[in-house]
Amino acid sequence: MLIKIRKSWELPESEVLSEQSYLGRRDILKSMGIGGLIAAASGMVAPRFAGATTSDPSAHLYPVPRNEAYVGGRPLTPEDVATTYNNFYEFGSHKNIAKAAQALKIRPWTVQIDGLVEKEQTLDVDDLLSRMQLEERVYRHRCVEAWSMVVPWTGFALKDLVKLAAPTSKAKYLVMQTFEDKEVASGQKQFWYPWPYTEGLTLEEATNDLAFMVTGLYGKPLPKQSGAPLRLAVPWKYGFKQIKSIVRFTFTEERPKSFWEELNANEYGFWANVNPEVRHPRWTQATERDLRTGERIPTQMYNGYTDQVADLYKDLGKREILFR
Ligand SMILES: Nc1nc2c(c(=O)[nH]1)N[C@H]1C(S)=C(S)[C@@H](COP(=O)(O)O)O[C@H]1N2
Ligand SMILES: [Mo]
Fold first, then answer.
1. Residues in the chain with pLDDT values less than 50
2. Edge-to-edge, what's the strand order for the sheet holding 246-252?
3. DSSP state at residue 96
4. How many CB atoms within 10 Å of residue 281?
5. Radius of gyration (C-alpha) of the chain in whole angstroms
6. CA–CA separation, 157 vs 209, rounded Å?
């Protein structure tokens, strides 16, 4: 029993393998020249999900101008790849959760702001969107499982949400939580996971210019499988920090324990800064597989965002910089 349970959260390793077979298959199909046909028939590429956002009441807000200060450095990952190869354990512990995620009801959607703030509040997501300045940013995304993509997110600076929340001087951390609803998200019936999915940042990290509250993708409202209606992008950190479908922001004095840290602190720490020099206990982080090409490329320190974030970690011990 114990062994079986342990297996399910040691998934990343098996995912690295299944991802390779997925890409291998795509490449073979492409080289045969009939990829589109077979892929569509087998459900591997699912363009139908791209249209699933048309009923989103925020659709009229998109697209918004791109902020050219943020560039990917390599070509964008095709939309159909980024929106059909996902991690969202609430809907299953594999990559093919896009269809199951359509069960998520994203309106009405409220976010709670509480903890060490001047005044606790509950906001309707559309009200929140109307108060924020939306922009598009192209970011690299590096999963701890060693796959990566480059995508155009739409959203607003997380520091603007922090400002709206007005934390008190005691607050040191921002904790975020995903919705909880077993009926909709069958993954949450897996009782051994510490639901709800929880993540956190220091307030310094949360107010760094790069920290981005994502509301859209490829010039449209965020697809459900990507974490609608509100998800985090902190591109210098591993993907598991980038919590999806957020319903709660809590300001705390104590460092929170995140979902993955709770499961396995030796492998998934609080800092989780991308670092090619520090192996995951079970695989190398020196390279990553680009989802667009299937090729392995070198991983960069802080995922290439050193100039923007290195200052945040100057006071940390070396072990923490490297491991967490
Ligand atoms: N609530 C929630 N957020 C989550 C996850 C999850 O399982 N549940 N997976 C994380 C991981 S490991 C990654 S790599 C990214 C994946 O985002 P994507 O599916 O849009 O590529 O979401 C992150 N956010
Ligand atoms: Mo990830």
1. 1-53, 322
2. 121-124, 110-115, 246-252, 173-178, 198-202
3. -
4. 9
5. 19
6. 7
Q: Whose CA is nearest to atom 20 of ligand 1?
A: 226
Helix then strand count (H, E) for the chain reads: 11, 12
Give the Å distances, CA to CA, from 162 to 178, 252, 286.
18, 13, 34
Gap between the Cα atoms of 116 and 323, Å rounded: 29
- Tokens at residue 230, please? 């509100």
DSSP state string for 118-130: SS-EEEEHHHHHH
Residue type for position 321: I
Q: How far apart are CA 81 and CA 14, in angstroms?
A: 20
Residues pairing with 296 in the sheet: 289
The closest of 104, 84, 107 to 94, measured between CA atoms, is 84
The pLDDT tens digits for 242-280 are: 999 999 999 999 999 999 999 999 999 999 999 999 999
Task: Report the pLDDT value the prediction gives residue 317, as an integer from 0 to 100.
Answer: 66
The verdict on whether omega for the bond into residue 108 sits within 30 degrees of 0, i.e. cis, is yes
**Ligand 1 binding site (Cβ under 6 Å of any ligand atom):** 86-90, 143, 178, 197, 226, 239-240, 242-245
The three-class DSSP label of residue 65 is coil
φ and ψ at 306, to 5 degrees? -55, -45
Which ligand has the shortest distance to the CA of 243?
1
Rounded to whole angstroms, the Cα distance separating 238 from 253 reads 24
CA 88 / ligand 1 centre spacing (Å): 5
Q: Which domains does the chain have, with CATH numbers?
A: 13-310 (3.90.420.10)
